Automatic annotation (TrEMBL), chains A, B:
The chain crosses the membrane at residues 384-406, 412-437, 449-472. Keywords: CBS domain, Cell membrane, Magnesium, Membrane, Metal-binding, Transmembrane, Transmembrane helix, Transport. Belongs to the SLC41A transporter family. Residues 229-285 form the CBS domain. This is Magnesium transporter MgtE. It comes from Hyphomicrobium nitrativorans NL23. SUPFAM superfamilies: CBS-domain pair, MgtE membrane domain-like, MgtE N-terminal domain-like.
Amino acid sequence: MRVFFKLALKAVGASMAGLEEQVTPAAEALSVDELVRDVTLAMQEGDSARAAEIVKDLRTRDLADVIELLTPENRIALIQALGAAFDFEVLSEIDETVRDQLSEALPNELLAKAVTELDTDDAAYLIENLEDEDREEILSQLPRNERAILERQLEFPDYSAGRLMQSDFVAVAPYWTVQQVIEHARETDDLPDTFSEIFVVDPAFRVLGSVDLSRVIRSKREVLVSEIMETDIHLVKATDEQGEVARQFERYDLMAAPVVDQNNKLVGVITVDDVVEVIQDEADEDMLALGGVGDESIGASVASTARSRIPWLIVNLGTAVLGSLVIQQFDATIEQMVALAVLMPVVASIGGNAGTQTMTVTVRALATSKLGAANAPRIITREALVALINGVVLSTIIAGIVFLWFGSGMLGGVIAAAMVVNLFAAGLAGILIPLALDRLKLDPAPASGVFVSMITDVVGFFAFLGLASLILL
Amino acid sequence: MRVFFKLALKAVGASMAGLEEQVTPAAEALSVDELVRDVTLAMQEGDSARAAEIVKDLRTRDLADVIELLTPENRIALIQALGAAFDFEVLSEIDETVRDQLSEALPNELLAKAVTELDTDDAAYLIENLEDEDREEILSQLPRNERAILERQLEFPDYSAGRLMQSDFVAVAPYWTVQQVIEHARETDDLPDTFSEIFVVDPAFRVLGSVDLSRVIRSKREVLVSEIMETDIHLVKATDEQGEVARQFERYDLMAAPVVDQNNKLVGVITVDDVVEVIQDEADEDMLALGGVGDESIGASVASTARSRIPWLIVNLGTAVLGSLVIQQFDATIEQMVALAVLMPVVASIGGNAGTQTMTVTVRALATSKLGAANAPRIITREALVALINGVVLSTIIAGIVFLWFGSGMLGGVIAAAMVVNLFAAGLAGILIPLALDRLKLDPAPASGVFVSMITDVVGFFAFLGLASLILL
């Protein structure tokens, strides 16, 4: 995958006279790496005004990238140099570790200003990890209404829909006409910046339906909202887990979904662009978990990274020692024929690789609902057959290599047989272990690898050394 | 991650009288697994009418799931039993392998009907893999205009923006008033079903800007489009790679982007909901690649699965044999002290795990643009330090275990030293190899694992056996 690192500067607002000009092409600007280099250089020379000048016309996401890649001290210096020109939206785009660093380092007045300008969900992210005292001080500087909304948002659990939603939405009554809806939109000030769906509610703010904005615009003025509203809508509960919400959006191709509280009262809206980030995060989590890493940010410190990775390594140390115990049972055999020691890691290693292949496919299929009780037997059979076929292919190759290397057809036969056995075990472990964990309501992504490699090590060493001691000695 | 398997039946269209009723909650319906079981049972009893009855009120995505989980024969039988009640949208939701199976098995007349009803991008997916003869027959049954659009779409390369885009869009002139836009929307029939953005074009259909629908609705009737249009827009070229487009949507929080051809003429629009699937697919691809699997569908046959997985296993066989060659250099040492054979896989295995951790984080950071030339030195230093810290921790543990097990402090010291060396090598390999591959414009996800495990095997065996032969014998 190629990294997308070229950016576009904001096109200057085109006047009527300039309409013929094409929109600024994305490829002409400096890359993020070049910008970071220039900013760092300016900072080193103590010229923070020049540093601010370099980044001041960047798009939000690009400035966020630049800030992420700077050193912690330069991040603060750059934001302070930007002063009023700093785009607070950057704080909602930035990596969590960096955001927490910034919200601790920046003065509370600046944060209070940021909170006022940001959407409620982003404002909540900004202050959620602050110390109580700082958070209180910032909240106290907000208008009463905004403060109440933000406090409510912070009451929802982490990673809940309530944290993800926008508190601003457009709600209308079913007996309104299209004309009334348009007038309401024209005259009301505290509507969201952009919206594509309007919700229809009863007096208790329970959701009756939704109307897509394009439907509104295409309907005649006198048509009633109740006539054009869609009633087949997905309600999201504010306490629903964000990953679950994302899967619903994906499943049903939703553009927006109303969020309701425990009384079924409409409290916010989640739009598909909020969900994109959740999908990416969930995929990240799964991928890292499969690689034996917890939820780790690239910006995390040495100490926290080392701490988060060591548990999995210790568990693996345990399973590796288990493999050693198996080998020890055959130490007399190995003493008689040291070629066994030379070859045994091959059997275990290929088994581990084949098991990882099956496990990866299985974990991903479970996460994306492609694997369920209905097709599990068919997929298990397929994996077993694939394991046997590949076992035979690889056995033939290794038998040939061993015959040429050690000049022993018997040794070649033994390693081939052990390889078939271990690949079959690997295939079954690779699918059955994640399925079993999922059935036990455990997340298969982080835990499967340990068990799969344990089985391929133990079976690999046992099959190879056991067969060797039976046949060769 | 929990699998989302409970579904909602379509809520029946609420009449005005029924407005007080709440929308059907999602939890009451049958699960996909239960539906598949019931349908399979009905099919076994030859009662395909009952099977059709069971699924006829399902949402598109849920019916797609049921069809995916059925056996190939039952899939065809169910679709034929549904007849006119079959929702063709299912074909655009379904897994690619299953879609190809269906489009080969279903009669061409049915496919032609499906193509007419589907959006152009989905219609293109449906017939792209058919044999030329069948595709021609289906295309010949389409109205001329639709046929031309579909043929143009099929001319764009696979995985290009042109294949992902919708050919229907709303385009207006900059000198139109809001009133004219609304009237145009009310009176034109061939607009997309829903849209949230309107594109402003010149007479040659070059994009001048875009207007969010909520902006239209909130503006006074006499306001000109040119006054409210956004000119800072992201143009997507029809030949752009879909993954690249998805990263732009994510980066800049886009809701929709205009797609232009080589003459900068507007030819379509991509909306964020199209992109959600691409993001998911890209994450899938990366995850499978890290697990040593190509782009593999859970529905693929035994033969194609075995074939797609074997190359990686053969490459790994090669690196494992390389490890064996290292061990062989020390066969005299092992003969003298068989405990070395018992313990050596531990050193290699933990190194492999630690290398995989670093590699996974690195590959993911590269894919999501969190790692670039600007912060690479800092991250490399961090990984080296993490590797040293965890190396020392794990070495202490294994030294203790070995001392208790074999009663030799020297052997414990040797394995501890080898472990520190190998974890350091693993940490560096885990970050430097993906970075190098990325610099060479190669995809780091599939290739990194082989090199990392090669290094941890070779270094692990060499450090442990080499130190042992120097110190212990």
